[in-house]
Amino acid sequence: MINPEIAAVFDEIADLLELTGGDRFRVNSYRKAARSIEDLTEDVADLANRGELKKIPGVGKGTAERIMQYLKTGRIHVHQELLESIPRGLPELLTVPGLGPKKVQALHRELGVGSMADLEAVIADGRAEKLPGFGKKSVEKIAEGLAFLKRSAGRTPLGAVLPLAEGLRDAVREFAGVRRVEIAGSARRGCETVGDIDLLCIAEDGEQVVKSFTELPEVTGVRAAGETKGSVLVAGPIRGEIQVDLRVVPEESFGAALQYFTGSKEHNVRLRELAVKKGWKLNEYGLFEGDRPIAGREEAEIYEKLGLRPVPPELREDRGEIECRGETPRLVSLADLKGDMHVHSTASDGRSTIEEMAEAARQRGYSYLAICDHSKSSVIANGLDEARLLRHIQDIRAAGKRINGLTLLAGIECDILANGKLDYSDDVLAQLDWVIASIHSAQQQDRASLTRRSIAAMENPYICCLGHPSGRLLGRRDAMNLDWDEIFAAAARTGCALEVSASWQRLDLKDVHIRQAIDAGCRFAISTDAHSTEQLDQMPLGVQTARRGWATADDVLNTWPESRLREWIAARRKAGR
DNA sequence: GCCGTTTTCGGCCCGACTGTTTTCAGTCG
Fold this sequence. Notes:
By secondary structure, the protein is an alpha/beta fold. It has four domains: 3-152, DNA polymerase beta, N-terminal domain-like (DNA polymerase, domain 1, Orthogonal Bundle); 156-248, Beta Polymerase, domain 2 (2-Layer Sandwich); 256-315, DNA polymerase, thumb domain (Beta Polymerase, domain 3, 2-Layer Sandwich), CATH 3.30.210.10; 334-576, Metal-dependent hydrolases (TIM Barrel, Alpha-Beta Barrel), CATH 3.20.20.140. Helices cover 43% and strands 15% of the residues. It is built from 23 helices and 17 strands. The chain has helices at 3-19, 24-39, 44-49, 61-73, 77-85, 90-93, 101-111, 116-124, 136-151, 158-173, 185-189, 206-214, 254-262, 265-277, 299-305, 354-363, 386-402, 426-429, 447-459, 484-494, 511-520, 539-548, 562-576; strands spanning 156-157, 180-183, 193-194, 196-202, 219-225, 229-235, 241-249, 281-283, 286-289, 292-295, 339-343, 368-374, 407-415, 434-438, 465-466, 497-501, 524-527. The strands form four sheets. A seven-stranded parallel sheet has the order 11-12-13-14-15-16-17. Helix 1 (3-19) crosses helix 5, helix 13 packs across helix 15 (299-305) and helix 20 (484-494) crosses helix 21 (511-520). The structure holds one DNA strand.
């Protein structure tokens, strides 16, 4: 997949143009093209072969030609020219909070600053402070920005950030005069990682609320504190620091503000364009005709006035939700789920017993639960050999008889071995109700081998679901190098489901792949891969990920009643024999 | 550089906060 590479080049062209004082609309159009290419699930090279580059939103004649240049020669003329005229280290300076294109230009032009090290030097010796437009305070801000960059947590997995965000939300709720607080931003959209935390509240005295916010015990630094907005730093849940923004709005603007601060930026720009076309203006205070507000209290009325059905937060990415005027499919929701199809027990590496997991699932309102411990090759995870597995199946069935109102499915997470074979024979797999096949070893194999292994597993009629298909761990391990077109085609052809792991470290499949798989005709199982009862509560993250992939309840087989699920499993086995 | 039910040119989203200002530019989201 060459897309990320090309997107990065276009992003750098945008940075470089900005640094040379290029036309800002031209800069924007490079950024837009970069983002579109990044979002594509299809390889740009394939589109180019079919002469369909201009079908990519934001790609016109010029950009299409530049993509062709890159595909043929590995470089783009304008990019090379810009690189030659601008010092290598300059674009990086744009990442420093407090430094934008104008200030970087001035630093370069007046003081010859061309790198982070140069920047630190001119701050230290006081020369930066003397530049026109600079001053003691702004240079202090830049120095703080540099320090933050070194301590920054970067993008953090949503599942790790949520407890922190919810804690801060609850703290703000206790402030005097605060009537409502919500988490907005990428956390509300269910993005797999977040860069900062956005909070929004209703209160009359904004200044007082912002002051209380900056004085919270968690706060390690204050970026800004005004009458309607505060911006602070707190310790990140995994490492470094993370920024938290609080906005205070009046009640009659809350819907508009929630819409605005939920984003995404690209989605908002599209909405504002719609407003402008109707002769109106949209901002965080409402939708206005002249000075007269025509919507703002409720988020939904903003969309409706603009001629759209209200768009679920997970779909607000400018990935087609505007074009279909908000007429998106009815997305799967947590309430639709009837069971968790992948949990472990103390039989392998789980921390809770079969009975404890079953009881916890029952309490969460599920009607079935698949116990899927590790197979024998996962030695580190205490995987089950054939003899232990057969006893384990009996244990699951016995536990199932003891619990009321919940069906226990005897399952396994069967390793797909390095040679492509499964960890058990078909005779053994046939004893089970539900079988997941996962790759846990030899993840560094080449693309063809990994793809072949995954497909071979899906072709076995006893395999119901491909577990955490990409194998990625957010921020820790990249996805395996797989041919997704082939994987999804095979899943659709064989009928094997694909897992959407709700585990916050995984979220695997990810949103854009889910959408691509739906288009290919695939089905899914959303599961937590819980290793203890409390991890069952990660399910909402998996549901949000599926929603971001535009999945409906019918696409997800653990929304089905048990009878339909069992029929589906039986039919698949029958067809495969 | 892109784009079109204001279409082949002339637009292109909007406001808060800060600092250096003397009325506003730069940055950020």
